[in-house]
Amino acid sequence: MEVPLTTVAPQPARTAVAAPSRSLRHTVTPLLVSVLAAAGVAVTYYTFVRTPLGQAVDTAVMSGGDVDHPRVADVLSKALQYTHLTLLALVCVLAAAFGVLRRRLDLSIGAAFVVGAANLTTQYLKSHLTRPDLDGLAMPNSFPSGHVTAAASVAFVLVLVFPRALRGTIGLIGAGYVTLVAIATVWAEWHRPSDAVAALLIVLACGGVAVWAVRMRRAGAPRPLQLPNMLVMAVLAVTGAVTAAAGLLGLLAVALAERGSPGFVSERFAFLTGSAGIVACVAGTFILWVRLTADEPPAGRPNLGGTK
């Protein structure tokens, strides 16, 4: 008795699907952010240090920070008091150790790079850049701010080493802290607003390089933002938009006053205008940072088969 044979259709040989290549845009974006941030530092320096009107507006904002409210003055004083190198260095060491405990040595190295590169760059620029006497005040160069660089680099490091789901929340807290420090340095007449803005951009430029290095060693496609991070982005975006509009209009009024309309705006108005501009810059900087850090690909080998 013959057994019927069942013809089995030949199966195509299973070939490994090529690993998805890294998206060029996803890989290059951090470097693009770094380049734009560095260009922003150059533009800020030229506008507010190398031009007479820029110097006048910058100094007018700093000179208007005579705040009489005791509670506000106390908060600003404490923001400066707790921003010293020993405490910030301790926070950075703990952040790097936390990255090691998470088995993310790349993040620990990136954190160390951000802190070291940003603060060294700031100190180098402050000691090598010149401030021409264009307003007759003969003030020394204070560009960029070391205090703001230190505060922003610590906040950036904490965002970087924490898990993705918490990076937005940590970023929002860090943005509040950096805002206080930046405004406090202007209030105490240690720095002008342009010094704080440049410091933020320097930290962002160094952070972009660190994120680029992390992305280069991790395979896979970027993951979408999680809900907590999306909410933080919305809060920062609204805050940044409102304060940017107020700051731009206010700076225009201050510039017109410095051009030839003395008394057109008060010193207090100039200080509030500069503070609004600082808030907008902090919000924009942290939006970019949270977006860069929350967008990292997952660890592990690329997926060679189908999707699940």
UniProtKB/TrEMBL annotation:
Residues 108-211 form the Phosphatidic acid phosphatase type 2/haloperoxidase domain. The chain crosses the membrane at residues 28-48, 79-100, 107-125, 145-163, 170-190, 196-214, 234-257, 269-292. Pfam families: PAP2. InterPro entries: PAP2/HPO, PAP2/HPO_sf. SUPFAM superfamilies: Acid phosphatase/Vanadium-dependent haloperoxidase (SSF48317). Keywords: Membrane, Transmembrane, Transmembrane helix. This is Phosphatidic acid phosphatase type 2/haloperoxidase domain-containing protein. It comes from Actinoplanes missouriensis (strain ATCC 14538 / DSM 43046 / CBS 188.64 / JCM 3121 / NBRC 102363 / NCIMB 12654 / NRRL B-3342 / UNCC 431). The lineage of its organism: Bacteria, Bacillati, Actinomycetota, Actinomycetes, Micromonosporales.
